[in-house]
Design goal:
With 266 residues, this protein is mainly α. The protein has helices at residues 2-19, 23-26, 30-37, 44-69, 78-87, 89-107, 117-133, 149-192, 204-213, 219-265. The protein is 76% helix and 0% strand.
Length: 266
Amino acid sequence: MGLVKLDKRVIKVFNTDMHKPSPARYLPSRQTEASASGHRTKSPLVLVFASIAGALLNILIYHFLRNRLGIPLFLDTVMTMTVTFCGGVFWGALTGALTNLMEQSIFFYGWLYYLYAFCNIAVALVTALFVRWFPQELDIDGTEKPLPKSQRQSLWFQDLMGRAIVLVLLSFALCLAISVLGGLFATFINSFNPPSLVPESISPEHNFRLALIRRNLSGVLVEIGSRIPVNLLDRLFSSFAGYALALLLAWGERKAGKRKNARHIK
């Protein structure tokens, strides 16, 4: 009987130790924290430069597509999303705000149009939220576990599909957020400056707006609804382009780091 009691005690202690969470197991590494928060450790000076350069590129992309190529898309948030993926929500929001402030300061459509800076900031906030919700799918660190060769191809395809699905969902969320905010700001601006029914240039947004006006919808619903079709396509391209550019920059950073380490070893 004594041996049986002893065995039960040993088994009880063994099971308790097995189920006790290991501190090292649950302590998040720096890389895990970086992926979950969408922040990669970089010099603040580099991030300031990236925010300013990203804002300028946003403006150049927008005006090149609209004025030079005549493509009715904005794509003025691609670099905002890239900086958010690489640097985090603060630097992404700064890039979005600088995009609006620089563009309005250069072309100056009116003081009220500075309100659209909040739309660009919302892009960074929504993107950072998705990075926190889907850290594995939107990871840009390229951390891969060693796998058998037979499993690599199938898991690679699953990973690719997972990233694509999350980016599509992100584009839908961005479309909704930007359409609602943009519609509310446009309604507020129109209360001071009523829009002309004969604009200087015909755009898809104007055609959708006229179609909704004919249905006797309220001004707010017209402004929000007329933005959804173009924003849906625009955010879809922006999400994939912004994430692809972030992957490219992260890959280049890793390559540069390996070369630097190899030189130190030599």
